[in-house]
Amino acid sequence: MGRNTLTVTDNRTGQKFEVAIERGAVRAADLTSPFLTSAGPGLVIYDPGLAHTAICSSSITNIQLAPGLLEHRGYRIEDLVENSTYLEVAYLLLNGELPTADQFADFQKALSTRKFVHENVKSFIQGFRYDAEPMAMLAAAVGALGSFYPDAGAIEDIDARASQIMRLVAKMPTLGAYAFRYGNGQPFVHPSDDLSYTGNLLSMMFRMSELQYRPSPKLERALDVLLMVHADHEQSAATTAVRAVGSAHVDPYAAVAAGVYALSGPMRGNADRDTLRMLRELGAVAAVPAFLERVKAGQDRLFGFGHWVYRAVDPRAKILRAQLDTLYEDRPASPLLAVADELARQAADDAYFLSRGIYPNVDLYAGLTYEAIGITQSMFGVMFAIARSAGWIAQWLEMITDTEQTTVRPRQLYTGPSHRPYVSVTERS
Ligand code: ACO
Fold first, then answer.
1. For a disulfide at 61, which of 51, 86, 192, 234, Cβ 3.0-4.6 Å?
2. 204 and 78, same structural domain?
3. Catalytic residue among 307, 314, 330, 350
């Protein structure tokens, strides 16, 4: 049995050194510090996108590429979805264990009393243009929340920190729903004490003049499942943004706002929308073979397929696909579902996709599920951000309590010019 080390030889100088391998990783500092000089690091790790760099140790979420596995605190997402609720999963992410009945009752109570927002937050949202993107309103509103709590920045204070965590989890649905109502020109709906977390979200979005709004249990459950499958996904771009911004010791509202902004970009947050657009453009199963040929020729992208980590079917895609059957039990299914299924069927039989590890991801069925619940496309990102806020806050908490973590401050390979003589404006050509 060999040693758990890596021996590195610098062939420029013949210098040789041994680096420890722990948990399948080498420390970048061990690799680079032998080259430290008074002029600088001498050698750095070049990893654009950090795709080959573990930026933290984390005990929250485990993803494995093949077979596609997603676990939170050791529990498989399939088991959580079958037996739990989003709020229980949020508790698990934040606290490391599933709650006892008493712990859960306390958690729900603590959230329930914190789900309201200051009246000025409403005015803040009302200051946006009538057609502002709900994600822009949500990001700005959650960032602004920090200014409402004098202890928001006391991130070393355990009690203050606990308050911010509960406030964030409790208020994200309220902010998201208010952004939706404002965009629709509808009055805000106050959160209600007699609805679940997810039922309240539906009520705040869809309640009109009913004396007592009761969401359909099936739709409430479907949205709860959507929230559960989006609750955390280890070091995604948005989570990395939360950790990076949080590492500067900003208040957690600002860190979560960074996550919302990251999610609003087309590389991630809009993939569910792009998938729906693609399905609509295809329109029918008959269009699938020609489309896949265009994808293989590099003329089109197959949205809802492929993933940075998974090299198998994303387990969340399977969960949402099964749920669509339940949602469509008592009404005709969207014709786009058949198109999505046919894409999955043909891609699973095609060497091009198999050899590249391109399988269905969560977005193949997420947009269809939102639409089946009645949630419009402009709100897909907001729903994702509400769901992911539990994961972001858990990751933020883990980061600021991890003694190994420091302010994120990467290096670069400078490629620009140096030592240029300054040219005055009158002499510039
Ligand atoms: N459609 C067509 N070709 C694809 C796709 C796709 N969806 N995904 C990967 N490929 C091809 C690439 O063109 C490349 O081919 P090549 O080797 O001939 O050049 C090869 O597969 C590897 O592609 P990469 O871009 O290196 O793979 P990566 O793992 O970085 O891509 C990504 C991941 C960006 C998610 C990609 O699969 C993609 O664009 N998917 C569509 C958009 C989408 O659904 N996004 C949601 C992601 S899931 C999530 O965020 C939860």
1. 234
2. yes
3. 307
pLDDT for the residue numbered 223:
98
The answer for residues whose C-beta is within 8 angstroms of residue 422's C-beta and 6 or more apart is: none
Give distance in angstroms: CA of 66 to centre of ligand 1: 16
308 Cβ below 6 A of ligand 1: yes
Tally of CB atoms within 10 A around 273: 19
Q: How many domains are there within the chain?
A: 2
Rounded CA gap, 135 and 306, in Å? 25
The CATH number given to whatever domain includes residue 290 is: 1.10.230.10
Q: In the numeric block, which tokens belong to residue 202? A: 């539906």
Say yes or no: CB of residue 91 within 6 Å of ligand 1: no
Q: Which residues contact 105 (CB under 8 A, 6 or more apart)?
A: none
Mutate to test the pocket of ligand 1, among 291, 307, 346, 362 (most ligand atoms within 8 A of CB): 307
Q: Are residues 255 and 388 in the same domain?
A: yes
Specify whether 261 is located in the same domain as 145. yes
Whether 363 sits among the annotated catalytic residues: the reply is yes
What digits encode the pLDDT tens for the residues 236-250?
Answer: 999 999 999 999 999
- pLDDT value, residue 268: 65
Q: Which residues of the chain have pLDDT under 50?
A: none
Asked if residue 367 and residue 385 are part of one domain, the reply reads no
Query: Is residue 181 lining ligand 1, measured as CB closer than 6 Å?
Result: no
| Helix H or strand E segment including 292 | helix 288-296
Q: Could you tell me if 104 and 236 lie in one domain?
A: yes
